[in-house]
Write a structure and sequence with these properties.
The protein has about 200 residues and is mostly helical. It is built from eight helices and no strands. The protein is globular, with a radius of gyration of 25 Å.
């Protein structure tokens, strides 16, 4: 004897597709207009060469033209571009054997808490640029992304391909090193000032 089961609910033949929840991706021209300057400055902060920075930005936009359509979330365009540019630079730096990889070591790098009792030296833009240029690339990059490009810890971690804890420790260490460099520059410049009696 065979039992026939009958349910009074009609099931759809095909599963409905889930609606995509994201805003429309801007055009290529809009993306270039919105992000060229930021990407160029970021590239220049890493390589210190105008032509190389322009090449890195051009390569980044070339990669966007090839692969940008695969990005599902239009809100992540900026992160995608900075990540791509950073990876292009890493690839180039490895070829030139100039990039220094530094891993997070809790005992060495310490916590991200800032010491409010230490006053940061006051400097002009040119001095700050000079001091940034002296920072090792592994510290300079997250510092530039956080303070100048205003990326979040999470976005920087995605861009650099490192954990958020590493980003935070590198930022903390970068600020300590930068403060030390600026103090040395300040001491050097003040020691070069001749006394008024001279």
């Amino acid at each position: 004897m065979q039992l026939a089961l009958h349910f009074p609910i009609d099931l759809p033949l095909a599963r409905p597709k889930a609606a995509r929840v994201f805003s429309a991706t801007p055009s290529f021209e809009q993306i270039v207009d919105a992000h060229y300057q930021g990407l160029y400055r970021f590239a220049l902060s890493m390589c210190h060469r105008d032509a190389t920075a322009q090449d890195l930005v051009q390569q980044t936009f070339f990669q966007w033209a090839r692969k940008g359509h695969t990005l599902r979330d239009a809100a992540k365009v900026k992160t995608w571009l900075f990540t791509t540019l950073y990876r292009e630079w890493l690839s180039q730096a490895r070829r030139e054997k100039r990039h220094e990889e530094i891993e997070f070591e809790p005992d060495l790098h310490g916590s991200v808490q800032e010491d409010d009792s230490v006053e940061a030296p006051r400097v002009d833009s040119a001095t700050l640029q000079r001091a940034l240029a002296e920072l090792p690339a592994s510290y300079r990059t997250p510092l530039v992304l956080f303070y100048l490009k205003e990326l979040s810890y999470k976005e920087i971690a995605e861009t650099l391909g490192v954990p958020i804890g590493t980003v935070m420790s590198r930022l903390s260490r970068a600020k300590d090193i930068l403060r030390s460099i600026l103090q040395k520059i300040e001491e050097t410049s003040s020691s070069n000032i001749l006394p008024a009696e001279f």
